[in-house]
Amino acid sequence: MGVKTVTAKQIEVQRIVDALSKAIAQHRLPPGMRLIEAQIVDALQANRNHVQVALQRLAMQKIVSIEPNRGAMVAQPSAREAREIFTARRAIERAIVESITPQTMRKHRQRIAQHMESERKATGSTDRRAIVRELSDFHLMLGEICGNSVLADLLANLMVRSSLIVALYQRNDHPPCASDEHQDIVTALEEGDQGRAVAVMIEHLDELEGQLALEEPAPPEVNLKQALADL
Protein backbone atom coordinates (compact mmCIF):
# COMPACT_ATOMS: atom_id res chain seq x y z
CA MET A 1 0.00 0.00 0.00
CA GLY A 2 1.45 3.34 -1.02
CA VAL A 3 1.86 6.37 1.19
CA LYS A 4 -1.20 8.63 1.08
CA THR A 5 -0.30 12.04 -0.31
CA VAL A 6 -1.68 15.11 1.45
CA THR A 7 -2.80 17.65 -1.13
CA ALA A 8 -2.40 21.40 -0.98
CA LYS A 9 -6.19 21.71 -0.73
CA GLN A 10 -6.31 19.41 2.30
CA ILE A 11 -3.58 21.42 4.01
CA GLU A 12 -5.39 24.68 3.32
CA VAL A 13 -8.75 23.37 4.51
CA GLN A 14 -7.12 22.11 7.70
CA ARG A 15 -5.55 25.53 8.25
CA ILE A 16 -9.00 27.13 8.08
CA VAL A 17 -10.51 24.48 10.36
CA ASP A 18 -7.73 25.00 12.89
CA ALA A 19 -8.06 28.80 12.81
CA LEU A 20 -11.83 28.74 13.32
CA SER A 21 -11.62 26.05 16.00
CA LYS A 22 -8.99 28.03 17.88
CA ALA A 23 -11.01 31.24 17.68
CA ILE A 24 -14.08 29.43 19.00
CA ALA A 25 -12.15 27.67 21.77
CA GLN A 26 -10.70 30.99 22.94
CA HIS A 27 -14.15 32.64 22.97
CA ARG A 28 -13.21 35.00 20.14
CA LEU A 29 -16.27 33.74 18.24
CA PRO A 30 -19.27 33.34 20.56
CA PRO A 31 -22.04 30.73 20.24
CA GLY A 32 -24.63 31.70 17.68
CA MET A 33 -22.40 34.11 15.78
CA ARG A 34 -22.92 34.00 12.02
CA LEU A 35 -19.86 32.87 10.09
CA ILE A 36 -20.04 34.85 6.86
CA GLU A 37 -17.95 33.16 4.19
CA ALA A 38 -16.78 36.37 2.55
CA GLN A 39 -15.47 37.69 5.86
CA ILE A 40 -13.60 34.44 6.58
CA VAL A 41 -12.10 34.53 3.08
CA ASP A 42 -10.87 38.06 3.72
CA ALA A 43 -9.64 37.49 7.28
CA LEU A 44 -7.75 34.27 6.51
CA GLN A 45 -6.77 35.12 2.94
CA ALA A 46 -8.42 31.89 1.87
CA ASN A 47 -10.22 30.44 -1.13
CA ARG A 48 -14.03 30.50 -0.80
CA ASN A 49 -14.38 26.85 -1.82
CA HIS A 50 -11.87 25.88 0.86
CA VAL A 51 -13.80 27.90 3.44
CA GLN A 52 -17.01 26.09 2.49
CA VAL A 53 -15.35 22.70 2.91
CA ALA A 54 -13.88 23.76 6.26
CA LEU A 55 -17.30 24.90 7.53
CA GLN A 56 -18.87 21.63 6.42
CA ARG A 57 -16.17 19.71 8.29
CA LEU A 58 -16.75 21.77 11.43
CA ALA A 59 -20.48 21.15 11.08
CA MET A 60 -19.81 17.39 11.04
CA GLN A 61 -17.87 17.88 14.28
CA LYS A 62 -20.83 19.84 15.73
CA ILE A 63 -18.68 22.91 16.29
CA VAL A 64 -20.58 24.83 13.62
CA SER A 65 -24.21 24.56 12.52
CA ILE A 66 -25.35 25.18 8.96
CA GLU A 67 -29.00 26.03 8.31
CA PRO A 68 -30.79 26.54 4.99
CA ASN A 69 -31.14 30.20 4.03
CA ARG A 70 -29.15 31.27 7.11
CA GLY A 71 -25.73 29.83 6.41
CA ALA A 72 -23.16 28.83 9.01
CA MET A 73 -22.98 29.92 12.62
CA VAL A 74 -21.08 28.92 15.72
CA ALA A 75 -22.93 26.04 17.37
CA GLN A 76 -25.09 26.54 20.46
CA PRO A 77 -25.07 23.24 22.36
CA SER A 78 -28.21 22.36 24.30
CA ALA A 79 -28.07 21.65 28.04
CA ARG A 80 -28.52 17.96 27.30
CA GLU A 81 -25.62 17.99 24.83
CA ALA A 82 -23.50 19.79 27.44
CA ARG A 83 -24.09 17.00 29.96
CA GLU A 84 -23.29 14.38 27.34
CA ILE A 85 -20.04 16.13 26.42
CA PHE A 86 -18.89 16.12 30.04
CA THR A 87 -19.79 12.44 30.33
CA ALA A 88 -17.65 11.81 27.25
CA ARG A 89 -14.81 13.93 28.65
CA ARG A 90 -14.75 11.88 31.85
CA ALA A 91 -14.34 8.68 29.83
CA ILE A 92 -11.76 10.07 27.40
CA GLU A 93 -9.68 11.95 29.97
CA ARG A 94 -9.70 8.95 32.33
CA ALA A 95 -8.26 6.84 29.51
CA ILE A 96 -5.68 9.50 28.70
CA VAL A 97 -4.50 9.83 32.32
CA GLU A 98 -4.38 6.06 32.79
CA SER A 99 -2.07 5.74 29.78
CA ILE A 100 0.51 8.30 30.99
CA THR A 101 3.43 6.72 32.84
CA PRO A 102 6.25 8.33 34.85
CA GLN A 103 8.47 7.59 31.84
CA THR A 104 6.11 9.64 29.67
CA MET A 105 6.26 12.48 32.17
CA ARG A 106 10.07 12.43 32.18
CA LYS A 107 10.18 12.36 28.38
CA HIS A 108 8.02 15.49 28.19
CA ARG A 109 9.33 17.14 31.36
CA GLN A 110 10.42 20.36 29.66
CA ARG A 111 7.16 20.83 27.76
CA ILE A 112 5.09 20.19 30.89
CA ALA A 113 7.17 22.58 32.99
CA GLN A 114 6.92 25.31 30.37
CA HIS A 115 3.17 24.90 30.14
CA MET A 116 2.65 24.97 33.91
CA GLU A 117 4.70 28.18 34.11
CA SER A 118 2.62 29.75 31.32
CA GLU A 119 -0.53 28.63 33.08
CA ARG A 120 0.53 30.18 36.39
CA LYS A 121 1.33 33.48 34.67
CA ALA A 122 -2.02 33.50 32.88
CA THR A 123 -4.09 32.71 35.96
CA GLY A 124 -2.25 35.45 37.83
CA SER A 125 -3.34 38.01 35.24
CA THR A 126 -6.65 39.57 34.31
CA ASP A 127 -6.47 38.42 30.67
CA ARG A 128 -9.47 36.09 30.54
CA ARG A 129 -8.70 34.98 26.99
CA ALA A 130 -5.17 33.92 28.02
CA ILE A 131 -6.54 32.14 31.09
CA VAL A 132 -9.05 30.18 29.02
CA ARG A 133 -6.36 29.29 26.47
CA GLU A 134 -3.76 28.06 28.96
CA LEU A 135 -6.19 26.10 31.14
CA SER A 136 -7.67 24.37 28.10
CA ASP A 137 -4.22 23.67 26.67
CA PHE A 138 -3.36 21.64 29.78
CA HIS A 139 -5.98 19.04 28.89
CA LEU A 140 -4.92 19.05 25.25
CA MET A 141 -1.27 18.61 26.28
CA LEU A 142 -2.09 15.47 28.26
CA GLY A 143 -3.94 14.14 25.23
CA GLU A 144 -0.97 14.80 22.96
CA ILE A 145 1.67 13.23 25.22
CA CYS A 146 -0.35 10.12 26.11
CA GLY A 147 0.69 8.48 22.86
CA ASN A 148 -2.82 7.64 21.62
CA SER A 149 -3.70 9.85 18.66
CA VAL A 150 -7.34 8.68 18.60
CA LEU A 151 -7.87 9.80 22.20
CA ALA A 152 -6.08 13.07 21.44
CA ASP A 153 -8.31 13.79 18.44
CA LEU A 154 -11.50 12.97 20.36
CA LEU A 155 -10.44 15.23 23.21
CA ALA A 156 -9.55 18.10 20.86
CA ASN A 157 -13.11 18.08 19.51
CA LEU A 158 -14.65 17.83 22.98
CA MET A 159 -12.54 20.74 24.24
CA VAL A 160 -13.77 23.10 21.52
CA ARG A 161 -17.36 22.06 22.20
CA SER A 162 -16.73 22.51 25.93
CA SER A 163 -15.67 26.09 25.30
CA LEU A 164 -19.05 26.74 23.68
CA ILE A 165 -20.78 25.23 26.70
CA VAL A 166 -18.81 27.45 29.08
CA ALA A 167 -19.67 30.54 27.05
CA LEU A 168 -23.37 29.67 27.14
CA TYR A 169 -23.91 28.18 30.58
CA GLN A 170 -21.23 29.26 33.05
CA ARG A 171 -22.83 30.65 36.20
CA ASN A 172 -20.20 33.31 36.86
CA ASP A 173 -17.26 35.03 35.24
CA HIS A 174 -14.55 32.97 36.95
CA PRO A 175 -12.21 30.88 34.78
CA PRO A 176 -13.71 27.43 34.13
CA CYS A 177 -10.65 25.59 35.41
CA ALA A 178 -8.19 25.67 38.30
CA SER A 179 -4.42 25.58 37.97
CA ASP A 180 -3.87 23.99 41.40
CA GLU A 181 -5.84 20.92 40.35
CA HIS A 182 -3.75 20.67 37.20
CA GLN A 183 -0.57 20.68 39.30
CA ASP A 184 -2.01 17.92 41.51
CA ILE A 185 -2.60 15.79 38.40
CA VAL A 186 0.95 16.42 37.16
CA THR A 187 2.46 15.52 40.54
CA ALA A 188 0.44 12.29 40.77
CA LEU A 189 1.47 11.24 37.27
CA GLU A 190 5.13 12.00 37.97
CA GLU A 191 4.90 9.77 41.05
CA GLY A 192 3.24 6.98 39.08
CA ASP A 193 0.00 7.27 41.06
CA GLN A 194 -2.41 7.04 38.14
CA GLY A 195 -5.30 6.21 40.46
CA ARG A 196 -4.94 9.51 42.29
CA ALA A 197 -4.43 11.37 39.01
CA VAL A 198 -7.67 9.90 37.64
CA ALA A 199 -9.53 10.74 40.85
CA VAL A 200 -8.36 14.36 40.74
CA MET A 201 -9.22 14.64 37.04
CA ILE A 202 -12.75 13.26 37.54
CA GLU A 203 -13.30 15.54 40.54
CA HIS A 204 -11.97 18.42 38.46
CA LEU A 205 -14.40 17.71 35.60
CA ASP A 206 -17.27 17.29 38.07
CA GLU A 207 -16.47 20.73 39.46
CA LEU A 208 -16.33 22.27 35.98
CA GLU A 209 -19.75 20.85 35.13
CA GLY A 210 -21.06 22.01 38.50
CA GLN A 211 -20.18 25.60 37.57
CA LEU A 212 -22.66 25.45 34.69
CA ALA A 213 -26.35 26.32 34.80
CA LEU A 214 -27.59 23.38 32.74
CA GLU A 215 -31.31 23.67 33.42
CA GLU A 216 -33.36 23.54 30.25
CA PRO A 217 -35.51 26.69 30.02
CA ALA A 218 -39.19 26.04 30.61
CA PRO A 219 -41.33 26.45 27.48
CA PRO A 220 -43.36 29.66 27.54
CA GLU A 221 -47.01 29.31 28.49
CA VAL A 222 -49.12 30.26 25.49
CA ASN A 223 -52.89 30.27 25.23
CA LEU A 224 -53.55 28.58 21.92
CA LYS A 225 -56.98 30.13 21.51
CA GLN A 226 -55.65 33.63 22.01
CA ALA A 227 -52.66 32.97 19.77
CA LEU A 228 -54.90 31.96 16.90
CA ALA A 229 -57.52 34.67 17.46
CA ASP A 230 -58.25 37.03 14.54
CA LEU A 231 -56.20 35.00 12.07
Automatic annotation (TrEMBL):
- Looking at the UniProt entry, the stretches that span the membrane are none
Q: Which UniProt keywords apply?
A: DNA-binding, Transcription, Transcription regulation
What domain of life? Bacteria
Q: Which InterPro entries match?
A: GntR_C, TF_FadR/GntR_C, Tscrpt_reg_HTH_GntR, WH-like_DNA-bd_sf, WH_DNA-bd_sf
Residue span(s) of domain HTH gntR-type:
10-77
Q: What PANTHER family does its record include?
A: HTH-TYPE TRANSCRIPTIONAL REPRESSOR NANR (PTHR43537:SF53), TRANSCRIPTIONAL REGULATOR, GNTR FAMILY (PTHR43537)
Protein's recorded name:
GntR family transcriptional regulator
Specify the species: Stutzerimonas azotifigens
